[in-house]
Hints:
Elements (H helix, E strand, L loop, with lengths): L1 E4 L14 E2 L20 E6 L5 E4 H6 L3 E8 L4 E12 L1 H6 L8 E6 L4 E5 H4 L5 E6 L2 E2 L9 E3 L12 E7 L27
Parallel strand pairs: 1-5, 2-6, 3-12
Antiparallel strand pairs: 3-4, 5-6, 6-9, 7-8, 7-12, 9-10, 9-11
The ligand Nc1nc2c(c(=O)[nH]1)N[C@H]1C(S)=C(S)[C@@H](COP(=O)(O)O)O[C@H]1N2 binds next to loops.
Amino acid sequence: xxxxxxxxxxxxxxxxxxxxxxxxxxxxxxxxxxxxxxxxxxxxxxxxxxxxxxxxxxxxxxxxxxxxxxxxxxxxxxxxxxxxxxxxxxxxxxxxxxxxxxxxxxxxxxxxxxxxxxxxxxxxxxxxxxxxxxxxxxxxxxxxxxxxxxxxxxxxxxxxxxxxxxxxxxxxxxxxxxxxxxxxxxxxxxxxxxxx
Length: 196
Ligand SMILES: Nc1nc2c(c(=O)[nH]1)N[C@H]1C(S)=C(S)[C@@H](COP(=O)(O)O)O[C@H]1N2
Ligand SMILES: [Mo]
């Protein structure tokens, strides 16, 4: 299995401004984990693509596996170093659908009703994965079972847990926290916490 270490781990200013190190991931979500039956689980790729597609849990296991090691930065100011994830790289999606070249952003959809928007260049990046393992085990329910997105270069609210799909957008629009004042991009080194 290929291992990707996020380039953020090698920055001279590794800890973004206004953050402190924490040795664990703190559980933060709007509604707690949903009940999951893997035989019923579906992952949808839709929006500005040639042909929308729905993957089953078995389909997801067939995608090439990759390991990601990356620091995790939460807007509530804790940062957890060297978190280890296993899953599939976002570029696997490009093998399944043709994405419209005018796409500006994605909306990630989750089973708890959560959504978050991510600019397309931050989504299709070298260190962005959909993960089903955390530190060598299936992702615990509270941390996003069965599948979560991990976007190391942005604040953790962009790393949607319990994902049910990705929608490609021709125009960016705000997700759950972005509608409530969080930043449309959310770069921790620019302290893009709030858009107000
Ligand atoms: N589906 C879903 N994903 C979510 C959230 C949520 O409420 N629902 N919260 C976000 C926020 S605000 C943070 S800080 C991280 C926290 O991840 P953790 O609970 O695994 O530490 O998950 C993000 N992903
Ligand atoms: Mo958060």
